[in-house]
Amino acid sequence: MSELQNAKAVVRAFYRELDRAGPFDTADAMAMHCVPGLVWRGFHPFNQIIGSERVAKQFWVPLKTSLTSLQRRLDLFFARRNQIDGFETVWVATMGHLMGLFDEPWLGIRPTGKIAMLRYAAFHRIAAERIAETAMYFDIPHLMLQAGVNHFAPQTGAHLVQPGPMTHDGLLYDPQVPSEGEATLSAINAMLDDICSWDAERTEPLVDELRRTWNEDMVWWGPAGIGATYTIPRYAEQHSGPFRGAFRTRRFNRDLAMIAEGCFGGLVGWPNLTLRHDGGFMGMPATDREGDMRVIDMYRREGQKLTENWIFIDLLHFWNMQGLDILGRMARIEPVPAST
What we know:
Order of helices and strands: HHEEHEEEEHHHEEHEEEEEEEHH
CATH architecture of the largest domain: Roll
Number of domains: 2
CATH topology of the largest domain: Nuclear Transport Factor 2, Chain: A
Radius of gyration: 19 Å
Number of helices: 9
Helix content: 25-40%
CATH class of the largest domain: Alpha Beta
Structural class: alpha+beta
């Protein structure tokens, strides 16, 4: 229990220093709490960066310069030993939004001068009271939509600034009962077992499969370009069914981390799965090419089943592997005003 609390204290102290640092003070804030050779994984176009100073220069300085008065609005915070490596390492997972005033361009996205929210999730591996490894995934297309830029077909789900858990109790700063985390991890594993055993020839109705591991009033908070959906039938109709139809050939890769504490849990991969785009997806025609999906999934369990799921998918990286450069395309096209 104490090692988890110590790990949480490391990340909380890091966030305090990072969040109050100006753009050009972030390297010092990172040096206080991260190892010099920090392994940092982010979405395209940042990808993997080695070294806390380089992370500050390449990611945080441009972001803080663009989204001024930046503040972190946390919805989830929990820690646990990592199932993927046999519970050897300790990780802290967080999720929320980075909110600021969109005053300068970022990644070619034109500023609005208005409030903007970059939804994100992060996993931090703690070693010797320092952050040794981070996977921070952030929904760039969600920010693009707030700036009036959309290069995807109409979503099958809804576009929302996504809330945290319905129960408003996702910040697990205090120690939790270990058995609750074990129950959450068990629920996540049961759901993943169903997904991994699925094949295109299965005749079982999708909703019947989903009902084994999800509550009927589940909410799937998907990334921009896909959107959010609510209840098992609508999830099957608006995401899970189309996704399985588009990617009948799938290869699951070893995740970086999977942890759970209390009623909350999550997993992160780099990449989680490799898919052959053979059925058409998000309004894009099939390419018959393989592509990687880098995903963070966060979950809330209620009873014995899962009931909320927040998803971060590096869609810019996936479509780049399919031959579509969304950021490059965006730079060549004038944005549509957000009010239209």
